[in-house]
Amino acid sequence: MGTRSFRTSAGAGLHVELDGPPDAPVTVVLAHGWTLDSRSWGPVAAALSRRDPGDPARPPVRVIRYDHRGHGRSELVARADMTIDGLADDLAELVTELAPTGPLVLGGHSMGGMAIMALAERHPALLAERVAGVALVSTASGGLADTNLGLSVRVLGLVRKGEAKLAEAAWVDRRPALTRRPALLAPGPRALLVGRGADRGALRITTRCLADCRPAVMVGFRPTLNEHERDAALAAFAGIPTEVLVGTNDKLTPVYQSRRIVEHARRARLTLYPGAGHMLPLERVDGVVGRLTELVEAAARRTETAMAPAQLDLAPGLSRESSGSALARATPAGT
Fold it and tell me: Does any domain span residue 209?
């Protein structure tokens, strides 16, 4: 357990959080979303790395979570380097350095999920040789420029104009954080990011992440989100157990975006969380942990039996969500 710094070959200095035993048979790597940081995965990481005395058969897990370039405690980079492609390259180097052997389970929330899709596109050998499971949480494979955030046309237009003005403001690149008073931002996350019934902890962590985000990062990564189109990259997940998780009240990456993912990653399984919003790793900790744990256990079983790559398709099916969330197999978008 602990923290460390890691510098990529591109010069991006990343802050990394490590939990669980370094010799665990499976490593879980968690990538966070735009304008957030590794704290958004904190409750999930703690639950995954915690040993359960009542379940000695459960394999120990090592968990790596980190702040994307420019986010959280990682170093700021130039706006030209604020791209999803760059995030994918960072992820590839990070796992090669910090988890050089053994199976990996990758979990990506929002932009973190997009980084995993870009990893499949830019580093296919790493994905095929090391990745034993993937969880794509509240994310999208494209079409983000058309998302209306649940707003009216008029209000959405005002938001877009505000973003454009903010991107041109001279003070944006100098300011170290959006605000030192997180409470001022709370109405925004409450309306757009968390769903009905979210506890105070979920809203508090979300708001603090946003408050600490550098304005330059907020505006700098916006273009790459709009340009993100990776339906074709999802074919690489065909041989990898893949979980797609989304809240039914997600306004940033609505349910239809997840259905689009399972349409192209045809062996993926979709789980819907009624009433939950975009911050699923904070709003539905037990559900997300359950899915990741199943992926870890399946990866550990395959490692123990030295199963041949061609037999990966025979991995046991994952169980229904214990909390009663709606479940759907991969189906065409819009059904």
Answer: no
DSSP 96-158: HHH--SS-EEEEEETHHHHHHHHHHHH-HHHHHHHEEEEEEES--SS-GGG--TT--HHHHHH
Task: Encode burial over 204-216: b for 16+ CB neighbours within 10 A, e otherwise.
Answer: ebbbbbbbbbbbb
Residue 244: which residues within 8 A CB-CB, separation 6 or more? 135, 136, 258, 261, 262, 265, 268, 269, 270, 271
Whether 206 is covered by a domain: the verdict is no
Ramachandran angles phi, psi of 329, nearest 5°: -70, 170
231 CB neighbour count, 10 Å cutoff: 15
Amino acid at 22: P
176 domain residue, yes or no: no
In a domain? residue 182: no
What residue numbers bound the domain in which 35 lies?
2-159+221-329
What single letter denotes the amino acid at residue 233?
A
Residue 246, domain CATH: 3.40.50.1820
For every one of its 335 residues, what pLDDT tens digit does the chain have, with 9 covering 90 and above?
699 999 999 999 999 999 999 999 999 999 999 999 999 999 999 999 987 666 666 788 999 999 999 999 999 999 999 999 999 999 999 999 999 999 999 999 999 999 999 999 999 999 999 999 999 999 999 998 777 555 544 555 555 666 666 666 666 777 888 888 888 888 888 888 999 888 899 999 999 999 999 999 999 999 999 999 999 999 999 999 999 999 999 999 999 999 999 999 988 999 999 999 999 999 999 999 999 999 999 999 987 764 444 443 433 344 333 333 333 333 333 32
Joined tokens for residue 78: 């130039």
